[in-house]
Amino acid sequence: MLVSPSILSADFLRLGEEIDSICKAGADYLHIDVMDGHFVPNLTFGLPIISQVAKRASIPLDVHLMVERVEWFVEYFLPLRPEFISVHIEAVAHLHRLITHIRASGVRPAVVLNPHTSEESLRYILPDVDMVLLMSVNPGFGGQSFIPSVLDKARRLKDLIESKNPSCLIEVDGGVNASNIKSLQEVGVDVAVAGSYIFNSSDYAKAICSLKP
Ligand code: DX5
Ligand code: ZN
Known about the structure:
Blueprint: E1 2-5, H1 15-24, E2 30-35, H2 47-56, E3 61-66, H3 70-77, E4 84-88, H4 95-104, E5 108-113, E6 131-135, H5 149-164, E7 169-173, H6 181-186, E8 191-194, H7 196-199, H8 204-209
Parallel strand pairs: 1-8, 2-3, 3-4, 4-5, 5-6, 6-7, 7-8
The structure holds D-xylitol-5-phosphate and zinc ion.
Zinc ion binds near residues 6, 31, 64 and 193.
Family: Belongs to the ribulose-phosphate 3-epimerase family.
GO cellular component, one term: cytoplasm
Function: Catalyzes the reversible epimerization of D-ribulose 5-phosphate to D-xylulose 5-phosphate.
């Protein structure tokens, strides 16, 4: 299991130190939750902060865009060279065009599904993406409870991936902790995002280790 801690739950007044600690603690990616107050009812951080974060982090960024006007934000974040840019299927009219553009710009494209969106909606885009992010909470806030129906969705998605694009990764985001990580692993999840579980712990390395069963 790869682990992508969400800095949404970090102490923003000590963001630089938090990034250093999480990178040293064995995280694989740094998950960046960009919210615009329109697609989701919350605001987080934009380009000025994340370009500083990108300079400080010694591990690759995993950018999750929870925004309307997705095409604008993709242009802002491409020059930071994150490992992944994830865009919500619910927010993009011309998904194939945007995914193709992200890949042509040298960044790995990923698509995100809200809890109510079926894995079937991915059938014709799956060959073009490197990762699918399944939301296991309604996006907008850290610290919410895990929605268990994501397990069935991940299992069905895994079957679809095997027939359409076997190297595509599955990432799950929201309410992930040591008590649900084994069930996520069993249904084929490759990358776990965790915010409050890791940042509210007193030992980041131990918390990350507990998500790699
Ligand atoms: C929710 C964000 C998540 C969030 C995860 O909208 O996309 O990445 O930070 O936080 P936890 O792990 O606390 O649910
Ligand atoms: Zn996220």
